[in-house]
Amino acid sequence: MDAHVHFREVRDGVGEMPRMLGSDARDNRDRVLVAARELFAEHGLDVTMREVARRADVGPATLYRRFPTKVDLVDAAFADETRLCETIIEDGCADRDPWRGFCSVIEGLCVLNGRNQGFVLAFTSANVEPPDHADRRRAALQSLAALGRRAQAAGALRPDFTIDDLVLVLLAGRALGSLPQEKREAATRRFAALAVDAFRAPAAPPEGHAAH
């Protein structure tokens, strides 16, 4: 009887092993992604894979098993931010008032930039691109350019605006990363408001009102 019980316990324990290993693997992956997001936000994309492994407290072999290349790691680390960025742009483009939509995009991207500068650097850089990142980045910029043209046609956006101006604003906003976290969001919203004023056409209507 005791032997039978012992065998059952061993058998049940063996059955638990794959689940335990799967849980450990998920924990390792989650730790790596948290570490990568923190380091990219703090230091940009120059962070090495070994630095990420050290922050995550995993071995390099474990890191490379989960993410064979740095591009794979960047893609996974910024998946949530990419979706949020696309949602901000889609919502802005869907606004019937192109100027209001443009303003909402500026504010949304500036706040996202303040929260995670590593993502914005990845989004605006052509040097570190996951397999489908280039296409998604191109589509997002094309949508923003179309929104800009609509806002210009409405007489609200300055006529010399180009997409490069928006990228320049996002890059300039990286300086806000030196502020304490509790002050950063208010500062990024203020920065966004100043950027909107800079983009406003002479005698343009106040934010949220289309030109007639």
Topology:
Layout: H1 2-43, H2 49-56, H3 60-66, H4 70-77, H5 79-94, H6 98-115, H7 117-124, H8 133-153, H9 163-172, H10 181-199
Short account of what is shown:
The chain has about 210 residues and is an all-alpha fold. It contains ten helices and no strands.
Residue ranges: pLDDT <50 for 5 or more in a row? Answer: none
Count of alpha/pi helices: 10
Shape call: elongated
Portion in helices:
over 70%
Query: Any idea of the CATH class of the largest domain?
Result: Mainly Alpha
What is the CATH architecture assignment of the largest domain?
Orthogonal Bundle
What is the name of the CATH topology of the largest domain?
Tetracycline Repressor, domain 2
SS-derived structural category: mainly alpha
Order of secondary-structure elements? HHHHHHHHHH
Largest sheet: none
Distance between the termini: 89 Å
Share in β-strands: under 5%
Task: Name the descriptors.
Tetracycline Repressor, domain 2; 0% strand; mainly alpha; 74% helix; 2 domains; 212 residues; 10 helices; single chain
Word description of this protein:
The chain has 212 residues and is mostly helical. It folds into 2 domains: 2-69, Tetracycline Repressor, domain 2; 79-199, Tetracycline Repressor, domain 2 (Orthogonal Bundle), CATH 1.10.357. Helices cover 74% and strands 0% of the residues. It contains 10 helices and no strands. The chain has helices spanning 2-43, 49-56, 60-66, 70-77, 79-94, 98-115, 117-124, 133-153, 163-172, 181-199. Helix 5 runs antiparallel to helix 6 (98-115) and helix 6 runs antiparallel to helix 10 (181-199). The longest helix has 42 residues, at 2-43. The N and C termini lie far apart (89 Å). 28% of the residues are buried. The model has no long low-confidence stretch (mean pLDDT 81).
